[in-house]
Structure to design on (503 residues):
């Protein structure tokens, strides 16, 4: 007989179908007191459906939810919350015009005389919850203007105010910087020491190994693996998720390196970056690496003309571009895939088809009208070439998974037949299998002679895909490292300003 404590929350043989689609066919996991369990799998593996069952959003067709060993039925999210289950989403759902304390106390404000809200007590209780989490945050300040990291802390404090026993964190680090991730991990460890159970959903392997005790892996709607993290390697975990080795994540093929297509000369934007110079050649993938705040994305925006530079210039095939004019950059053959695909890369209210062709509408327009057949054929071609997974091209682009949304952004720009592709965080927030597809695509584009400038915060991605690595620190390039000489230590030394590295 096992000496393990009774799980705080368990799910046994859960099933859920939507019509003919079996979204969940073997949902089985448990979370014990003081346990941080990772839930991993590709997009479409069944993770979201499993979380919806645990959170009372949907009811399973079969199987059982257990709290402290006893079967329960959740008819709605309120039932799950009252049972001690809280879900912390990637995008916090707070009231921006209310204070931190008011958001934490929402629905259960302490009352004083004449049943009026006791604001003093509300602020004191909120401050105590934040103190328990080890976070300095003013309970009286409005939520509007708080970083995503601080908003997540408010959500966690709110969950604790409901006496939550189990916190489900859905991609909580996707929009956080390195120091913010470290602080969140500190909060998770505090919760763990207090006996809470954590279900941690992430695509980042290094985070799973840093914070999680156990790992549940899902594939095709079923749990296929349930093991202690200490018994696994990253390669083991990838193999369980996608059925192939870690090496397959970076299908980099050799390409013929040609003449310089992009030339950046002493580009400067006061207070942001200074004297940035480099070139990217045809067939070459150059990674721009560095810590958050180093100025990498800002350099990319200035190259494309979104932000105006204060000094220096950009050339494409030897021709100087006018400063601060994205249309001129596009006409010269530059394509730019931004970091935030939802806010800057897509028009979420439009269809998949229109988003994929929006940069090419001039070519698809006759007498002021868009040629519907030509637009559909172009969208179908890129959907096939990028292996896009969708129901109908007329569906809203918001119905797609994060990885497929990224493919639509790539389709939008690749349809312009660019000479230079700038791609900022190409695989942020997408699953391991789709990362491999995006990496394959970047390698194929380089093979076709496109010059690729890739900004990435993931060192394995940088090391796996780049022919050359440029490292930035505090707005300056502090290292240029060849593929043969690149390793994590060299990159991090340059990223922290401790070394100047020449290729």
């Amino acid at each position: 007989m096992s000496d393990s404590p009774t799980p705080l929350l368990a799910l046994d043989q859960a099933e859920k179908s939507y019509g003919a689609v079996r979204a969940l066919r073997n949902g089985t996991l448990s979370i014990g007191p003081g346990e941080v369990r990772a839930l991993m799998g590709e997009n479409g593996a069944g993770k979201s459906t499993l979380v919806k069952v645990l959170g009372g959003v949907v009811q399973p067709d079969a199987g059982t939810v257990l709290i402290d060993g006893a079967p329960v039925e959740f008819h709605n999210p309120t039932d799950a919350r009252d049972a001690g289950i809280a879900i912390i989403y990637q995008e916090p759902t707070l009231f921006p015009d209310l204070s931190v304390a008011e958001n934490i106390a929402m629905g259960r404000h302490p009352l004083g005389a004449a049943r009026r809200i006791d604001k003093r007590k509300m602020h004191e209780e909120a401050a105590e919850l934040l103190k328990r989490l080890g976070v300095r945050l003013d309970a009286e300040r409005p939520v509007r203007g708080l970083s995503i990291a601080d908003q997540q802390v408010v959500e966690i404090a709110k969950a604790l105010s409901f006496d939550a026993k189990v916190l489900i964190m859905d991609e909580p680090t996707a929009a956080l910087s390195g120091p913010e991730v470290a602080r969140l991990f500190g909060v998770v460890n505090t919760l763990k020491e207090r006996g809470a159970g954590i279900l941690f959903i992430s695509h980042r392997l290094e985070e799973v190994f840093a914070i999680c005790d156990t790992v549940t892996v899902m594939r095709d709607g079923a749990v296929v693996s349930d093991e202690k993290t200490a018994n696994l390697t990253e390669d083991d975990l990838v193999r369980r998720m996608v059925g192939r080795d870690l090496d397959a994540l970076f299908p980099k093929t050799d390409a013929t390196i040609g003449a310089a297509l992009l030339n950046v000369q002493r580009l400067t934007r006061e207070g942001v970056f200074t004297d940035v110079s480099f070139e990217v050649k045809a067939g070459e993938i150059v990674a721009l690496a560095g810590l958050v705040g180093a100025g990498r994305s800002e350099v990319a925006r200035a190259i494309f003309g979104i932000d105006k530079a204060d000094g220096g210039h950009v050339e494409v095939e030897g021709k100087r571009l006018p400063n601060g004019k994205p249309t001129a950059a596009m006409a010269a053959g530059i394509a730019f895939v931004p970091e935030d695909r939802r806010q800057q890369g897509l028009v979420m209210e439009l269809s998949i088809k229109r988003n994929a062709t929006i940069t090419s509408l001039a070519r698809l327009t006759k007498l002021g009208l868009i040629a519907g057949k030509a637009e559909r054929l172009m969208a179908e071609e890129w959907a096939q070439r990028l292996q896009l997974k969708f129901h109908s091209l007329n569906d809203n682009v918001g119905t797609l998974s994060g990885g497929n949304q990224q493919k639509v952004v790539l389709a939008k720009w690749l349809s312009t037949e660019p000479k230079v592709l700038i791609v900022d965080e190409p695989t942020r927030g997408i699953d391991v299998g789709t990362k491999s597809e995006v990496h394959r695509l970047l390698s194929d584009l380089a093979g076709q002679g496109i010059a690729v400038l890739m900004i990435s915060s993931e060192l394995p991605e940088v090391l796996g895909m780049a022919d050359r690595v440029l490292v930035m620190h505090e707005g300056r390039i502090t290292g240029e490292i060849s593929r043969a000489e690149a390793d994590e230590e060299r990159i991090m030394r340059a990223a922290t300003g401790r070394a100047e590295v020449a290729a």
